[in-house]
Amino acid sequence: MSTEWGRAEASDLKAAGAEPLPHARNGLVLKGWCVESRKRPILNSLAIREWEEKLGTSHMPEMVFGESSLSLLHISSGIKLHFNALDALRGWKQESLPPVEVPAAAKWKFRSKPSEQVILDYDYTFTTPYCGSEMIEPNYEKKGLHWQDTDERIDLAALSSREPILFYDELRVDGVLMRLRDTRVYCAFGSNGNAEPVVLRESCWREATIQSLSAQGIPSDSAAYGDPNLIVHKLPIIMQKNQRLEISR
């Protein structure tokens, strides 16, 4: 898994009417929203054991940046969308996909000594259906939040404008499978930043084996796809969903 967190230039933020967060926090306030990322060290062994107990598993990624997160808070309503590793792993545990078979796995299975056998009986790619978490911040009016299927779509024309990209994240499995699970959350900025936001979420899962791509004459070397956008439209869609965040009292 590769993760890259970026921050726009100060001049871009000023031009967009945004203000950086104080006290060396990584984020900004823009059009009634507070966007903040936290980048923290890898969890230590004690924290890993605590997470294993919470998740009911002894399998964890080799490195877990458990306290790193991205949050988007609508200041006037208290609606908060956030992305964190624990909830993502909860999704992985619940979905429980079968393991991805790599070429070396066949050799592991036929080792002569049982004590040397390596058994991978879980999804070690840690693929998750997680699309983010939502909540109402404490000290705000209590409301219910849920995602409702909708025919509304994200305004791609609005996204084509040259505005700074603040955060970027990707997951890629090399050598056997190309799997892309893409979640886009969109809120159009209106003139009234205090009004309840209209938030749309689009989720799309695409997946193909390297073998099937090679059969179509598509390069199978993962190094050719440093940018996921180069391969995304060649992968068949296996799930697509459009939702709107509904607010109830």
From TrEMBL:
GO CC field: cytosol
InterPro entries tied to this protein: Phosphatase_reg/MetRdx, TIP41-like
Any one GO BP annotation for this protein: TOR signaling
Pfam family, one: TIP41
Xref: PANTHER family: GAF/PUTATIVE CYTOSKELETAL PROTEIN (PTHR21021), TIP41-LIKE PROTEIN (PTHR21021:SF16)
Family: Belongs to the TIP41 family.
Annotated protein name in UniProt: TIP41-like protein
Protein source organism: Ananas comosus (Pineapple)
